[in-house]
Amino acid sequence: MTRHITCITRLPIHQDRHRRIQAVGGSGWQDSEETAIANVKHDKSAYDVIEQGKTAKVIVKKHDGREYLKTANDRFLPDNLLSLPDCP
User: Which residues pair with 7 in a beta bridge?
Assistant: First the structure.
């Protein structure tokens, strides 16, 4: 079952855009970045982001040897995850 990400928890000030997310969340749930990465690696349809009616799958990428979450290129927003509001 795909979880729809509607908010993120950001790390305290971090300049590297590949290391800004601490957790992702939605209605009544929140997963750490580490858990979300493991979930996506196990099931490529584990998470998505819906932005203005368009759906983008969440994928795992690697930068400087570190894995991070991002959305697949949807030709809509350059960074759907980082454009989400902070989780409460």
Answer: 25
Buried b (16+ CB within 10 A) or exposed e, 17-41: eeebbbbbbeeeebbebeebbebbe
Q: Compute, in degrees rounded to 10, the torsion defined by CA atoms 47, 53, 77, 35.
A: -10
Domain limits, the chain: 3-71
For residue 70, give every residue at least 6 positions away whose Cβ sits within 8 Å of its Cβ, in sequence order, or none: 58, 59, 61, 79, 81
Q: What is the pLDDT of residues 6-45, one digit of tens each?
A: 999 988 765 656 568 899 999 999 999 999 999 999 999 9
Separation between Cα atoms, residue 33 and residue 21, nearest integer Å:
7
- Residue spans of alpha helices (H) in 5-73: 33-42
